[in-house]
Specification:
The protein is mainly alpha-helical and 190 residues long. It has helices spanning 23-45, 48-65, 76-95, 103-111, 118-136, 140-151, 156-163, 167-189, and strands spanning 2-7, 10-15. It contains eight helices and two strands; from the N terminus they run ββαααααααα. A hairpin with a 2-residue loop joins strand 1 and strand 2.
């Protein structure tokens, strides 16, 4: 069966087999979506090593389930993030722990900048700690939607499709979540 897949705005004709996906198409999908999948998983589970494992599992499922993907349904990116969301949910079910973002995940970015002065690193760590407290004030659903919006850079319409919500509802949840985070952050400044 022949189908057309859009990757980074280019139409690629591929031969789909019952086994799944061709290597060239998978490579294009992987390159186009790896960063968003990684960011989404990292934001949700907060552990670099586990994130790498989960991203591998996501793309294994993409390979295994590609024959079930229908371009007339949701966009490919939303389909892949849905798989990532399910993999992360399974991870939490098995770990039985609440999601939060440890400071070593966020602070890693500050420590990797070689020109940063110790004072700058300390200020970044303090800001990140406050941000983590604000994120922990959100519900699981709110954190997931915020992760999809800002870590995976998804549009509200794609988030709505993944979460089975209305697009305006997603916008309202994002607005309320950011407002809640702002109140937490402003409460700390007082």
């Amino acid at each position: 069966m022949e189908s057309i897949t859009l990757l980074c705005g280019k139409a690629i004709t591929e031969a789909r087999t019952d086994e799944g996906i061709g290597a060239a198409v998978f490579e294009g999908i992987f390159e186009a979506h790896y960063k968003r999948v990684y960011n989404f998983c990292a934001y949700r589970i907060n552990n670099h090593h586990d994130t790498e494992d989960l991203v591998s599992m996501v793309f294994e499922k993409v390979i295994a389930k590609y024959s079930t993907y229908r371009p007339s349904g949701v966009p490919l990116e939303a389909w892949i993030i849905t798989i990532a969301k399910n993999v992360v949910n399974d991870y939490f079910r098995h770990k039985k722990k609440r999601a939060y973002i440890p400071l070593d995940f966020v602070n890693g970015a500050a420590l990797s900048v070689s020109e940063s002065q110790p004072e700058e690193i300390l200020m970044i760590r303090e800001s990140n700690a406050a941000l983590m407290r604000a994120l922990n004030a959100l519900t699981e659903k709110e954190r997931t939607i915020i992760a999809m919006k800002f870590a995976a850079s998804l549009k509200n319409v794609d988030i709505a499709s993944i979460m089975s919500l209305g697009e305006s509802n997603v916008g309202a949840i994002i607005h309320r979540s950011l407002k809640k985070m702002r109140r937490v952050l402003e409460g700390e400044e007082s």
